[in-house]
Design brief:
alpha/beta; six-stranded mixed beta sheet; five-stranded parallel beta sheet; 44% helix; 13% strand; disordered C terminus; binds adenosine-5'-triphosphate; binds magnesium ion
Length: 424
């Protein structure tokens, strides 16, 4: 790959200016991280800077790209999925830099994100019906756009899956709301415009040397890198991941950690121009912000569904459940039309008994959820009391009848943070 200028020139004119500019530190470190994917057995990753026009997104891409090549290294999202497959294969073990997600066909975006992250192209057959070799790649993608993945996919009425969101992680281009754009530290320049302009010109003159130096350092490190990485990852997970972290939290932490680790590896070998510690601190801080935007550790979909279930009970507790006393006598003065079941005040709070079919119908009308999944979740969280693992209902012996019902305990109304607990 063609390089221009020395490593020292790149550090003086690009790397040093990234110091204190968290997005640039992240972008350059992400570029280095792509060289670690294969030796450290890490999955492909994607980072997407989202922000309004003229916030410095493309400038950050130039800076990241300069680890590998000139400004021509940038590729547009505006391409067919087949075209991007070729581009991805050609960038294996390197950074893929894609500008302007808005130009990608929104109908194809979701599948393309999966394709880039999963690291292999489509299976095709040759004219003689033999299977062609499938292209494969290890890449990290750095992307920009004025919209995030979810918004762009929604234009084609497509719903973003959680799996897609973690394969192309959206990060606001502006590190803080009050900033005018992506750059935070002026390094003696008079304006962000001047600094951005300088970086654009510098990355046209100095590029490629950091990648070369990083690869040389990796060769010196040899096979130990894998072990070094794993030990550091485990330590960092123990320090920074909340106890209720679930699979996707671990994966996203792993991505940010790989980026931070790559930055530290480069810094220690004099390849970046910013102090030791800054890469990892920046990456971990970004993970923490990602977690906050998601609403904390744990399964957000589950939290949302259970929140809806709680609202359902709050709304209908007086209108669709008949009050019964300890002798199971109905104590409501008026008989409730279309009642779903009964409620009983106990020392443990209100218990709700719902007729399964009536409950299912009512829920279906009001909550966009799979009722079985919702009930299983409630059971896993010990909100729905069940007979055993194979049943969601319980046999209830009322004074005048014995019947199978869905029994919700008082936690279904709880305003406390039971939804924060990890499922048992
Ligand atoms: N804090 C800031 N950081 C970076 N750029 C800024 C900042 N404040 C203002 N700018 C302006 O934004 C310009 C960055 O241009 P760049 O092409 O990188 O933006 P962009 O976010 O890619 O825009 P677009 O979405 O239109 O492509 C700079 O030339 C500068 O004038
Ligand atoms: Mg741009």
């Amino acid at each position: 790959m063609k390089t221009n200028g020395t490593l020292d020139e790149w550090i003086q004119n690009v790397g040093k200016l990234a110091q204190g500019n968290s997005r640039l530190v992240l972008a350059i470190s992400a570029a280095f991280a792509t060289l670690l994917l294969k030796p450290c057995k890490r999955e492909n990753f994607g980072i997407h800077f989202v922000g309004g026009s003229s916030e410095g997104k493309t400038t950050a891409l130039y800076v990241a790209a300069s680890v590998f090549g000139s400004r021509q290294y940038l590729k547009p999202w505006r391409s067919t999925d087949n075209g991007l497959e070729l581009v991805a294969a050609a960038h294996s073990d390197m950074l893929l830099v894609l500008d302007e997600i808005g130009q990608m066909d929104s109908r194809k975006l979701g599948d393309t994100v999966y394709m880039l992250a999963n690291g292999s192209g489509k299976i095709r057959s040759t004219a003689s019906c033999e299977m062609r070799r499938v292209a494969t790649w290890h890449i990290g993608t750095l992307s920009t756009g004025e919209v995030d993945l979810e918004t762009h996919m929604a234009e084609a009425n497509k719903k973003m899956m959680a799996g897609q969101a973690i394969r192309l992680l959206s990060i606001p281009a502006k590190p803080a709301l009050e900033n005018s754009g992506l750059l935070e530290k002026l390094h003696g320049f008079n304006s962000y415009n001047e600094l951005a302009q300088y970086l654009k010109e510098a990355t046209e003159k100095y590029f490629g040397a950091p990648m070369k130096a990083f690869v040389e350092a990796l060769i010196v490190e040899g096979k130990q890198i894998d072990n070094l990485f794993r030990v550091a990852l485990e330590e960092s997970q123990a320090k920074h991941l909340p106890v209720n972290a679930i699979g996707q939290d671990f994966r996203v932490f792993g991505i940010f950690f790989t980026i931070g680790f790559a930055g530290e590896f480069a810094t220690k070998r004099g390849i970046t121009g910013w102090p030791a510690g800054e890469s990892l601190e920046t990456a971990v801080a970004e993970f923490t912000r990602w977690l906050q935007r998601k609403g904390g550790a744990g399964n957000q979909e589950e939290k949302k569904q259970l929140e809806l279930l709680r609202c359902f009970f709050q709304k209908h507790q007086h209108s669709k459940f008949l009050s019964i006393n300890e002798y199971d006598d109905v104590t409501d003065s008026k008989i409730v039309n279309e009642s779903i079941g009964y409620k009983k005040e106990t020392s443990m709070g209100t218990i709700f008994y719902a007729y399964p079919e009536r409950f299912r119908e009512a829920i279906k009308r009001e909550i966009p959820a799979n009722v079985d999944d919702l009930l299983k979740m409630a059971a896993d969280l010990n909100i729905l009391e069940r007979k055993d693992k194979n049943h969601l209902t319980k046999i209830v012996r009322f004074k005048t009848k014995v019947t199978r019902m869905l029994v919700f305990n008082s936690r279904v109304l709880a305003d406390d943070d039971f939804l924060e607990e990890p499922p048992k």
